[in-house]
């Protein structure tokens, strides 16, 4: 395929990549002080140039282009325009150019080319038109959450579109991309993210998820949406309500750790093979996700479930990645659980209730799968808290997160601003949670957790990654019998 730089009218690019707007939800991360005209100009320049020049995969192993992920995190953290330009120069040096697609994507051939990254630019063009007509809510409902674009009668299982699985697949990269668009009001990020999902490979998805159950998600959306634009969203707000004593996410972790289906020999069989694990055991993992209580009739339920996902992702990365002999091994794959969970508060307000529940369950099932595929590390909560007590008790600066954020902004690794931004925000939301907050869950040691977890995880990540010469951990956590 021939490399090509796509051309667009300036007004079209301006509409796709405006300066970031305020987040859609009080639970979304706010922007730090430090915004400037120079930073905004650098950011929009980078996003536009990336859109026209580069492919979504920077190599033929399908590794993702992270240019926009880094610069958006930097901008949100108050970075200068010169720093945004500096890291863009570094990150653009190894990108693949966008390629001319073999043909245009239409409604008629949309499914036929799913998974083929030669059509990435064509899917971008397709979704730019769809987004203009339907906005974020309508586009997600039709192309991610409808049965039509997940399972079609008469097609083999391996040929099903499963757009919801592609959206969450490949370590949540499309979910993160669209999440940035939702958080900051940037249509071009939504369009790129949906095109990315379209060229992700086929992944496991239970077909029964889309069985008829009364009103469909699309019908519900149609009745609720007054105008299909990016800023159409339902209301969410932080909740101070007590968590009901039902199946908390932590209790699901406790249950699955006792399941003989995931004994060490079986875990070893699928070690570092998320797709293989899900195709063989995905139904079991999804059944655990369905045991997780989500009752949208209860006030504040969606907000509680967002919080549970954030704590669970943080625990799997930090406590799952820790042992008493080596401290934290900052795992590259489990790190993405943390960075992706940051976008739940920004995406969920755009969805009707049916799709909110489906997204939460799908996200939870995926993080369970990644935990098992990385070796199913045990969660020694008491050991972790004891060994890291020095972090919460030693205050070297008045606000330790300001030091952490400052270091992350200038860190050479593109994922450091994202994960430290996430931990800082989680600390602002949940840092005041006291010990005993999780005492009614079934997870051993959970009653000892408090809001200092996010500072501990951030500081350990900083210690592991150092000044930038050390890569993220890739070894996993398999314990062989």
Quick summary:
The protein is mostly helical. Helices cover 52% and strands 1% of the residues. The protein contains 20 helices and 2 strands.
Would you give an account of this structure?
The protein has 481 residues and is mostly helical. It contains 20 helices and two strands. It has helices spanning 10-16, 37-53, 67-76, 81-92, 120-143, 163-184, 187-199, 217-224, 249-257, 264-269, 274-291, 301-318, 332-341, 344-347, 353-373, 381-387, 389-393, 400-409, 416-430, 453-465, and strands spanning 322-323, 327-328. A two-stranded antiparallel sheet has the order 1-2. Strand 1 and strand 2 form a beta hairpin. It is globular and about 60 Å long. The N and C termini lie far apart (48 Å).
Order of helices and strands: HHHHHHHHHHHHEEHHHHHHHH
Roughly what fraction of the amino acids lie in strands?
Answer: under 5%
Helix content: 40-55%
Low-confidence stretches: 214-229, 234-238
Rounded mean pLDDT score: 92
CA-based gyration radius = 21 Å
How many extended strands?
2
Secondary structural class = mainly alpha
Largest sheet, order of strands side by side? 1-2
Shape: globular
The total count of helices amounts to 20
Main sheet?
Answer: 2 strands, antiparallel
Calculate the terminal CA-CA distance, rounded to whole Å: 48 Å
Keywords for this entry:
2 strands, mainly alpha, 1% strand, 20 helices, two-stranded antiparallel sheet, globular, 481 residues
Secondary structure elements and pairings:
Elements: H1 10-16, H2 37-53, H3 67-76, H4 81-92, H5 120-143, H6 163-184, H7 187-199, H8 217-224, H9 249-257, H10 264-269, H11 274-291, H12 301-318, E1 322-323, E2 327-328, H13 332-341, H14 344-347, H15 353-373, H16 381-387, H17 389-393, H18 400-409, H19 416-430, H20 453-465
Antiparallel strand pairs: 1-2
Helix pairs in contact: 2-3, 2-4, 3-4, 5-7, 5-8, 6-7, 6-13, 9-11, 11-15, 12-13, 12-15, 12-20, 13-19, 18-19, 18-20, 19-20
């Amino acid at each position: 395929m021939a490399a090509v730089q796509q051309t667009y009218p300036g007004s079209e690019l301006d509409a796709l990549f405006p300066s970031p707007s305020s987040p859609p939800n009080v639970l979304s991360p706010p922007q730090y002080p430090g915004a400037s005209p120079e930073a905004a100009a650098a950011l929009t320049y980078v996003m536009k140039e990336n859109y026209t020049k580069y492919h979504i995969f920077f190599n033929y192993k399908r590794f993702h282009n992270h240019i926009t992920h880094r610069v958006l995190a930097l901008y949100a953290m108050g970075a200068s325009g010169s720093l945004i330009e500096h890291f863009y120069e570094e990150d653009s040096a190894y990108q693949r150019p966008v390629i001319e697609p073999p043909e245009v994507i239409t409604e008629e051939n949309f499914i036929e080319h799913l998974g083929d990254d030669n059509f990435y630019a064509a899917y971008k063009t397709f979704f730019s038109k769809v987004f203009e007509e339907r906005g974020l809510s309508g586009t997600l409902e039709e192309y991610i959450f409808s049965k039509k674009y997940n399972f079609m009668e008469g097609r083999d299982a391996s040929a099903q579109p499963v757009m919801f699985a592609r959206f969450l697949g490949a370590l949540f990269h499309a979910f993160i991309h669209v999440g940035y668009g939702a958080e900051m009001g940037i249509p071009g990020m939504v369009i790129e993210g949906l095109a990315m999902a379209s060229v992700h490979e086929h992944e496991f998805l239970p077909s029964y998820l889309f069985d008829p159950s009364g009103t469909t998600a699309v019908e519900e959306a149609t009745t609720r949406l007054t105008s299909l634009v990016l800023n159409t969203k339902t209301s969410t707000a932080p909740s101070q309500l007590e968590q009901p004593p039902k199946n908390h996410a932590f209790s699901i972790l406790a249950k699955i750790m006792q399941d003989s289906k995931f004994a060490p020999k079986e875990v070893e069989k699928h070690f570092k093979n998320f797709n293989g694990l899900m195709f063989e055991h995905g139904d079991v993992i999804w059944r655990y996700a369905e045991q997780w209580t989500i009752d949208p009739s209860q006030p504040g339920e969606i907000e509680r479930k967002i919080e549970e996902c954030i704590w669970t992702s943080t625990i799997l990365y930090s406590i799952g990645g820790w042992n008493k002999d080596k401290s934290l091994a900052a795992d590259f794959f489990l790190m993405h659980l943390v960075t992706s969970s940051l976008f739940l508060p920004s995406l969920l307000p755009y969805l009707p209730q049916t799709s909110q529940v489906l997204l939460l369950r799908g996200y939870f099932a995926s993080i369970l799968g990644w935990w098992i595929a990385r070796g199913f590390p045990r969660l020694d909560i008491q050991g972790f808290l004891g060994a890291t007590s020095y972090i919460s008790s030693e205050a070297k600066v008045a606000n330790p997160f300001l030091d952490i954020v400052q270091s992350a902004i200038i860190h050479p690794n593109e994922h450091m601003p994202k994960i430290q931004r996430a931990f800082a925000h989680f600390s602002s939301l949940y840092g005041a949670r006291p010990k005993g907050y999780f005492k009614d869950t079934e997870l051993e040691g959970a009653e000892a957790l408090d809001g200092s977890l996010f500072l501990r995880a951030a500081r350990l990540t900083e210690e592991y990654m150092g000044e930038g010469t050390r890569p993220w951990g890739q070894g996993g956590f398999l314990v062989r019998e």
